[in-house]
Amino acid sequence: MTTADLGFIGLAVMGQNLVLNLADHGYRVAVHNRTASVTEAFMAGEGDRPEITAASSVAELVAMLHRPRRVMLMVKAGAPVDGFIDLLMPLLDPGDIVIDGGNSLFTDTIRRTAAVEAAGFRYIGAGISGGEEGARHGPSIMPGGSPSAWPEVAGMLAAIAARTPDGVPCCDWVGPDGAGHYVKMVHNGIEYGDMQLIAEAYHLLGVGLGLSHPEMAAIFRQWSTGVLDSYLIDITADILAVSDDTGPRVEQILDAAGQKGTGKWTVISSMELGSATTLVAEAVYARVVSSDPDQREHAAAILAGPEPAITDRDGFVSAVHDALYASKIVSYAQGFALISAAAAEHGWDLDLGRIAQLWRSGCIIRARFLDDITAAFGRHPALPSLLVDGFFADALARSQHGWRRVVSSAIAAGIPVPAYASALGFYDAYRSRRLPANLIQAQRDYFGAHTYERVDQPRGRAFHTIWTGDGAPEVPAG
């Protein structure tokens, strides 16, 4: 009996919360999980609602759906997604839609879209951000894939998505094939960067200045009322305020950060496209360095360095605020430049301002700051970098003194600030009329005859020097 609006496969915490969200908005959902006991436990608990029906098999789930059938997968990325697609395709009719709501690698989504469309069906790769709370009450949703599928799911996905303060759903069509999952990947890369920036602020305030956890909680709470207002700043204030008879809870947590791969994917893609995401790269590597506390414990007993204390204390908290804000601007500028480079590479017509709007609520990096990014791309849709937008250029100019002070003071104190230092290095390189890359080109030409261009000749004209000969003769190359 075709009674369900959507088939839903995968009932881990995110999946269960999305199903409940759909039911709250009046959608009838048929659910299935590979492990039957998970389905049974869900249906005996919160899933015991008239809008939700359990299916014991994928075939039974498909039989419950009205046409065009819509089946959403919320399963582990990789082989499990391909496995369920293989199970579904013999059961579907032309025009039916498969939706992957997991954190799939965008190249997998490009491949799957082509394969599913070739079989006569339609495919959507939808990046979903917001964690458990977002899934339950309104996430940010970034769909891409088969364009003709979007009208069939737009109302449903918009209904369950978060809303901006002015009521706009944080869900809109991103672009074809892997565009939605690409944007979600970059979102996660930026999230890595934001978390590292906040962690470095915590380190500077706690270790460098010796502030108490209640004092730090109050500082982050105050920062959340200004330009740094964001979900991650808010939860950091909450975290720092939690204490028990053993002391601050955060200090009981092993300092070894985990990661699931989306930050790494962002950096790999940026290298392939030649679009720098230096801050995300440093955030990924910072997690890597943290992951072996035993090795760091051994090194700490051998390697020398200064006492980690900030001696220039007057106004230093404000300087950390400015360093965090300026570095955040650089990170988002790099992220949006990467999205633009991917759009050019894959032929995606992406609206960067609209993408910024998708992140204004529901997702992990939601922040007031994104309104300013939306406005910047509204002023200049083809903006090459957020750094050269007037609003952000002025913000960087105001923040620059504190930013440089924090980096230099941290280096002098031996406190690692890879994200702040990387962001500042990129900023200084980006604003430099001339960089020492001319020497690198000379070295490459010397040992490998790779040639070079001249400052007084048109771009693209190559030259080579016989560097070891008398007078080092130069000849046109090619």
Strand content: 5-15%
Shape: globular
Cα(first) to Cα(last) distance is 71 Å
- The percentage helix is 40-55%
Strand order of the largest sheet: 3-2-1-4-5-6-7-8
- Please outline the major beta sheet: 8 strands, mixed
Mean pLDDT: 95
Radius of gyration: 26 Å
Summed up:
The chain is of the alpha/beta class and 478 residues long. 53% of the residues lie in helices and 9% in strands.
What does this molecule look like?
- This protein is an alpha/beta fold and 478 residues long.
- Helix content is 53%, strand content 9%.
- The protein has helices at 13-24, 36-44, 58-63, 79-88, 106-118, 131-137, 150-160, 179-208, 213-223, 231-241, 262-273, 278-290, 293-300, 316-346, 352-358, 369-379, 390-413, 418-430, 437-448, and strands at 6-9, 29-32, 52-54, 70-73, 97-100, 122-129, 140-145, 175-176, 243-244, 247-248, 463-465, 474-476.
- The strands form three sheets. It has an eight-stranded mixed beta sheet, sandwiched between helices.
- Strand 9 and strand 10 form a beta hairpin.
- Helix 12 runs antiparallel to helix 18 and helix 14 crosses helix 17.
- The chain is globular.
- The N and C termini lie far apart (71 Å).
